[in-house]
Amino acid sequence: MPPAAERADQWVSPLVRASAAWAWRLLILAAAAYVLFQVFVLFGLVIVPVALALIITALLLPAVDYLDRLGAARGGAVAFVLVLSLAVFGGLLAFVVNQFIEGAPLLVEQVTRSIEGTRDWLINGPTRLSADQINRAVDSFTEALRTHQTQLTSGALSTAGTIVEILSGSFLVLFTVIFFLLGGRSIWQFVTRLIPGDQRARVREAGSAGFHSLAGYARATSLVALVDAVAIGSGIAIMGIPLALPLASLIFLGAFIPVVGALITGFLAVIVALLAKGIIYALITLGLIVAVMQLEAHVLQPLVMGRAVSIHPLAVVLGLTAGGVLAGVIGALLAVPAIAFFNSFVRVLTAEDPSAQVEALNAEDGPLVDAEFDGGS
């Protein structure tokens, strides 16, 4: 450093110099993160299906490996598991839609009675509103809908475009899952050839550890979602609330978004209970959902999820929030699995002894062998 610069540097506090050094480095890291995020956004139609396919692969791979060990051909095992899974998922969606169609007339009838009862209460109850006031309020609401008809139409067209994207993404997910199940290990071996030879084995071991955590997360989430759906669905069925089975199915699907998924879909049950049975049943349904969420938070998550994935609850909440803010529902769905993967990946990658770190993960989460990303050689 020139003498003039040295003399000028002496007038700056060491704390300020250290802060400035940290500041420009953090700015570079922030810029790199921003560029990386923009790349993800640009290629989102490819990255999101591949990420979903990886999660589905983690869930289905143990069944494929089990059939493979029994002597079945790898391709036949993949075809059988995929067809069975698609049949179960398609049957579940068809059941939900069919039940909603069959239960809609009864629900509409009950809602109509509720609206008429509310109208009579507004007229004859403490508020003493006149029929003209209520009619004007209804007319105002109708006029507002007509005024915003253009926005609603454009929203419907946007939704149609989204459906097309979902369908194309679904086909990409399906094809990716097929090839991951058939040759996942070969794909991983090929990708890691880009890594320098002296670090290649460490990266491969870290990838296997991350995939193991992802598989544990997928299995644990499925179990927790099933318990949520059965508990809430049984409760609303006992109370005689319409559409109990399809609501339970929606709660099962929603529970794959940690923390808030089952709560949001369960709120639909509260709305149905309010419309069909009144405020008392709605409050009871809300209490049931809160009780199940407490059971999940204090019993299921520590026992099931805690054994499958070693992630601090704060990391789950912060990751879920950040994912939702950055990418909406898809971000919330993928945030926690990504954290689960990179938590184990980074721990093994940065460990002084990767083998010892893998053994530590085995002790925390269970052995890696059954959940290894093994798609055949």
Provide a descriptive summary of the structure in words.
InterPro entries: AI-2E-like. One of its GO terms (biological process) is transmembrane transport. This protein has 377 residues and is an all-alpha fold. The protein has one domain. Helix content is 86%, strand content 0%. It has twelve helices and no strands. Helix 7 packs parallel to helix 9 (261-277) and helix 8 (244-254) packs antiparallel against helix 9 (261-277). The radius of gyration is 27 Å and the shape is globular. It starts with a helix and ends in a 12-residue tail after the last helix.
Q: What is the total tally of β strands? A: 0
Number of domains: 1
In this structure, how is the largest beta sheet organized? none
Helix content: over 70%
Q: What is the arithmetic mean of pLDDT?
A: 76
Q: Gap between N and C termini, in Å?
A: 57 Å
Low-confidence stretches: 155-160, 366-372
Rg on CA atoms, Å: 27 Å
State the shape.
globular
Q: Give the H and E element order.
A: HHHHHHHHHHHH
The fraction of residues assigned to DSSP E strands is: under 5%
Number of helices: 12
Classify the secondary structure makeup into a structural class.
mainly alpha
InterPro entries: AI-2E-like
Protein name: AI-2E family transporter
GO cellular component, one term: plasma membrane
Membrane topology: Multi-pass membrane protein
